[in-house]
Design goal:
The chain is an alpha/beta fold. Helix content is about 35%, strand content about 20%. Strand 3 and strand 4 form a beta hairpin. Helix 1 packs across helix 5, helix 2 runs parallel beside helix 3 and helix 5 crosses helix 6. It is globular and about 45 Å long.
Length: about 200
């Protein structure tokens, strides 16, 4: 499999920085830095910020942060895929997942939106055969709390520290996906670490 587009989901603007819903932006920003990507360039036609890196074979991989706001993410991704003729199978989307504990990570290649409005919009516009890198943000602290208030809230200091401490793991997940493809990457990333010791697990 040859991935050609990696998308981080989030909301644009300073008001949304460091919120749970923007962890996709955090991961893709860190990946761009790690890979020495070019400068992020706003594209008004796509309504997103674009950068790019080269894979080990010299092929170009586009990096994208939609600036449409989360609930309209699919429109931006659809335009970019159409313009660059990128099939869904060559797409990775990085986003926040309330059904995973804080800082945990999981790869999947199918499934529903799971209540995530950004993913819901994407699935309405694009065939669901793309790869998902899901970053855990944990559940609401109490059932009565509005989901929007939770995902648009900022991480606690402890939770943000956990995300930061796991960032290398997220970036290594992306590297493994690019190198080995989804099937092999899932065998390593989705398995339970032995003795509950994530630091000793192999990616």
């Amino acid at each position: 499999m040859s991935y050609r587009l990696i998308v981080g989901l989030g909301n644009p603007g300073k008001d949304y920085e460091a919120t749970r819903h923007n962890v996709g932006f955090q991961v893709v920003d860190a990946f761009a830095t790690r890979c020495g990507a070019g400068e992020w360039k706003p594209n008004r036609n796509f309504r997103g910020d674009l950068s790019e890196i080269l894979d080990s074979d010299g092929g170009k991989i586009h990096l994208l942060k939609p600036t449409t706001f989360m609930n309209d993410s699919g429109s931006c991704i659809q335009k970019v895929c159409s313009y660059y003729k990128i099939p869904p199978e060559d797409l990775i989307i990085v986003y926040d997942e309330i059904n995973l504990p804080v800082a945990e990570v999981k790869i999947s290649v199918k499934g529903s939106a799971g209540g995530h409005n950004g993913m819901d919009d994407i699935l309405k516009r694009i065939h669901p055969s793309f790869t998902r890198l899901r970053i855990g943000i944990g559940q609401k602290p109490h059932k009565e709390m509005d989901l929007a208030d939770f995902v648009l809230g900022k991480f606690s200091v402890e939770d943000q520290n956990s995300i930061n401490a796991s960032m290398d793991r997220y970036l290594e997940c992306l590297e493994r996906l690019i190198k080995d493809g989804a099937e092999k990457a899932m065998m390593h990333i989705n398995r339970k670490p032995k003795n509950n010791d994530r630091d000793q697990s192999q990616l």
